[in-house]
Amino acid sequence: MKSLFFIALLSGFLILNAQSSVKILPEWSSEEYKAANTAVNSSYLTPQEKDMILLNNLVRINPLKFSQTYLEIYLQANEAENHTHFVTSLKQTLSSLEPMNPLRPSKKLSACAAFHADDMGKTGQIGHDDSDGTSMEKRFYRFIPKEYFGALSENCQYGYKDPMKIFMDLLIDEGIDNLGHRINLLDPDMEFTGVAIRPHSKYRINFVQDFGAQMK
Q1: How sure is the predictor about 38, in pLDDT bands with cuts at 50, 70 and 90?
Q2: Could you tell me which residues are beta bridge partners of residue 205?
Q3: What is the pTM (predicted TM-score) of this model?
Q4: DSSP sequence for 7-49
Q5: What CA–CA distance (Å, rounded) separates 149 from 193?
Q6: pLDDT, tens digit, for every residue of 66-77?
Q7: Which has the closest alpha carbon to 167: 88, 83, 25, 60?
């Protein structure tokens, strides 16, 4: 029995990128990891960027299981974050949320995210507008034809290098009353995503994630 369990874990590990920082948990099947790891063959992404998409997809394909496993493990390791109403509301949301489609990686969206992450990193700024004042929407359409996506959104995060820390910060959305980052991560209408992790001159690291829903 132990050998079968080890083989199952090993096969699950092989589904992930060899440099992935996301721990394989026995509660999740190899099929679930495979379904979530849509970016595994995206050569334009770093292992850390692939992990950001993997984590986003794990919570999308099984919100309740994510809450009971990855979120609980994270909260146990970060006790100071355990008892806020943002954590409580997240648990409530994930317990009632229906499973949804995993996001597929988009090279165009990743190029858009990388441009903004590089721009913010070099200039030390934050926010969704570019350093020259170009709006997020106009930046999107520099990289993506208007007729390609029917809806677009963006998350930005600063200061963390570890993918799990970045992702949990956005998902919990502590201090963000409208829960905009969480809503973007859990938007069932979104189908594609692009991500970029880059250095930031003021906050060391900045992360940008762009989302797109294809035109019907």
Answers
A1: very high
A2: 199
A3: 0.91
A4: HHHHHHHHHS-TT--SPP-TTS-HHHHHHH-TTTT-TTS-HHH
A5: 11
A6: 999 999 999 999
A7: 60
